[in-house]
Amino acid sequence: MPSPLPLSGIRVLDFSTLVPGPLASLLLSDAGADVLKVERPGVGDEMRVLDPLDFVNLNRGKRSVALDLKDPSAITALEGLIERADVLIEQFRPGVMDRLGLGYEHARALNPRILYCSITGYGQDGPLAAKAGHDLNYLVDAGLLASARRSTTDGVPHLPPTFVADIGGGSYPAVVNILLGLRSVEQTGVGAHLDIAMTENLFLWHWWVRTQVDTAGSASAPGTSHPAGGSPRYSLYPAADGAVVAVAALEERFWQQFCELLDLPAELRRNDAEVATVEAHLARLFAQHDGEHWHSLFDGRDVCVSVMTTPENAFAHPHWLARGTFNETSTASGRSFAAIPSPLHRQFRRGGEQFSPQLGSSQALFEQTQAFFNPASEGDQP
Questions:
Q1: How many helices (H) and strands (E) does the chain have?
Q2: Distance separating alpha carbons of residues 353 and 338, to the nearest angstrom
Q3: Would residue 317 show up in a list of annotated catalytic residues for this protein?
Q4: Choosing from 14, 86, 141, 166, which is the catalytic residue?
Q5: ∠ at Cα 135 (129, 138), nearest 5°?
Q6: What distance in Å separates the CA atoms of residue 91 and residue 37, rounded to the nearest whole number?
Q7: Residue 238 burial (CB count, 10 A)
Q8: What angle (nearest 5°) sits at the alpha carbon of residue 44, between those of residues 42 and 48?
Q9: Is 166 a catalytic residue?
Q10: Options 106, 134, 281, 295, the catalytic residue
Q11: Residue 108 above 60 pLDDT?
């Protein structure tokens, strides 16, 4: 008989939409928690409209009720669920849940053990608390995107191809704090208000810049730090056919092996060699051959060099096939596709196909609040 999942029996009320909260509650659901989405009647989570496939991926294994949160009867019914919930996730601006009659203080009065997780751009207090924003705004306001510039004159960085703040500043910190909170409740019997500020959490992503500011008075110039391509040992070089070679030979042993393979002159291998001179030399070398040449040269060598690949090729790589990375699937409108690969260890997460809920599909059971939060009593189907 398989062991129970780590979060079996944990009950989660999720009022969030789009990415940060839903991804956090997805990971909790994957680990066995019973997650109930509370959605707006008629529309539901905005992701249902913006990208239905993304909605399916982010909300598999959950249930849904559609409630008008301005209706006093809905609030009364939700109070009954809050009394029995372990976790509540919300993503409104500070003060909104209070105005609805579902704020933390009221939730705590109903259930002192509840972990009330509020995910916002800037936190529950402070001058920016009420400011609207999205991932790009948070990256800018944390000073992180400025570090992606190549120089002070080349001032417009590329947009990141993913949601760094939503996921790295919102979803993951929310999950970490919820898990810590659950352990704390076991020890103390007292819940907490978890204040997850996405912009604030981005400061972790470039802590060394803060150290520079504190010790030297200012951050290093754009494009001069290692992560931003300020070292020839950690940079991108175009090949003759437009392919891009990613060099990350930071450690001396990797750098020396890299230099041997390229027959780099001795004076350019030194730590004190002029950065611009080394970069220019490497750029000329890489421009002489196509990406396949460089892939063949570095493949199997211990030098930390990769040739940029497409998402299609990355997904199809035999390594991920061998690890079963994309074995789990989601289904929508008769189409099956790879589910979001969970970062949870396989022993700690659900296996097989999980369906996302139709809007309000748990409405009937919602009327029987005493029976609710009992996963065995219902299974949503697409």
A1: 17, 11
A2: 10
A3: no
A4: 166
A5: 45
A6: 12
A7: 14
A8: 110
A9: yes
A10: 134
A11: yes
